[in-house]
Amino acid sequence: MKCFVVTKKHIAAALSAAVIIPLSVFAIKNTSREAAAPVFKLAASEILSEALPTNDDPSIITKLKDFFEKEKNKKSADIISEFAPIFPEAAETHQPEEAKQDTPETEPAPPEETAIPEPTPEPVPIQIEEKTTSSNAAQIKNDTSYEINAEDFADEQLEFPQTAEVLIVHTHTTESYAPENSVTEIDNSRSVDEQKNIVAVGETIREQLEGMGIKVIHDKTVHDYPSYQGAYGRSLTTIKKNAESNKNICIILDVHRDAIVKSDGTRVKLSAEVAGKKCAQVMIVCGTNGTGLSHPGWQNNLNFAVKIQNKAAELYPGLMRPINLREERFNQHITSGSLILEIGTNGNTLTEAKNGAALAADALGRVILEGMK
């Protein structure tokens, strides 16, 4: 009886046939042979032609997984799908990624199954009150590689046309606040109720600016519900739509609330006693081109932020947190007057947020009017 010994060579040949033949068919059927050829050559020639793995070498499956992880174009994903029956492990572990956001989220996305309109009652977490230091001059928390000093903008001019209008949007429209009464109210950091979420704070800013004679458009489009992921892409669409239909829009404010939660789950509220009222502190966030996205006018936005910060320090000491300069763009490339305003945290109440927003809007409005002269 003749015995047949299966060697590494035989197995390698079988694997090569199993992959190379379907890859050849795929390349012929594909309408873009030129795009598929490099992938075909690398997978067939550089991976499967190698000797089978030993204890010291990674497995073929591991190498294929590593290879496909490095391939970020659609062709690689198509090939993985095509050969799922041959390499099921590689196919199952590779999931298409959503297009990279140009802004990191400041807090985790809520589960899709969470019913925001009707939240489940839960205990109100303990809230720790903290205050940030303030001074008469703008402070910058620089999270970029750029060397920036707030004093560099002291002599920079800021100009807006007499017809300048303000657009208010909310990328994370469902952000809401701690309950006013922790005994009778449900604690929920998100809500679709415009009377309870960040939209209500945006209305406070609109009312303050319009009371100063500045025209404001408040777009209340919801961008983060039911899907949280991709909110910045959807808000960019809203911003562009408004900017294209109204050429007078020069200032764009993306109004948020921050979220600071300690490791034990307690929330931090940032507040200060300003003008006789308990106010949530306000932080301006400025984006840059640090991630490689085009944003040639980010220094103009920072100049705007520094002037608002200085005006608020003059009128309402203790109201503002340091400006946060970030690598990400935050959709702020549309105008040279685009900023994120973080009004309080999820530890503050809506009343505290509205109080802080009104004072910040007053300082903001004064800077805009001074720039119109």
Quick description:
The chain is an alpha/beta fold. It contains nine helices and ten strands.
Strand content: 5-15%
Sketch the major β-sheet. Answer: 7 strands, mixed
Round the Cα radius of gyration to an integer and report it. 27 Å
CATH class of the largest domain: Alpha Beta
**Quaternary class:** single chain
Widest β-sheet, arrangement of strands: 2-9-8-10-5-3-4
CATH topology type of the largest domain: Aminopeptidase
Descriptive report:
Helices cover 35% and strands 14% of the residues. Strands 2-9-8-10-5-3-4 form a 7-stranded mixed β-sheet, with helices on both faces. With 373 residues, the protein is α/β, with parallel strands linked by helices. The chain has 9 helices and 10 strands. The chain has 2 domains: 8-93; 127-371, Zn-dependent exopeptidases (Aminopeptidase, 3-Layer(aba) Sandwich). The protein is globular. The longest helix is centred in the first third of the chain and has 22 residues, at 8-29.
Provide the descriptors you would attach to this structure in a database record.
373 residues, alpha/beta, Aminopeptidase, 2 domains, seven-stranded mixed beta sheet, three-stranded mixed beta sheet, globular
What is the element layout, followed by pairings?
Elements: H1 8-29, H2 33-47, H3 60-70, H4 74-82, H5 88-93, E1 127-130, E2 140-142, E3 165-169, H6 198-211, E4 215-218, H7 231-245, E5 249-258, E6 267-274, E7 277-280, E8 282-286, H8 298-315, E9 323-325, E10 338-345, H9 350-371
Parallel strand pairs: 1-6, 2-9, 3-4, 3-5, 5-10, 8-9
Antiparallel strand pairs: 6-7, 8-10
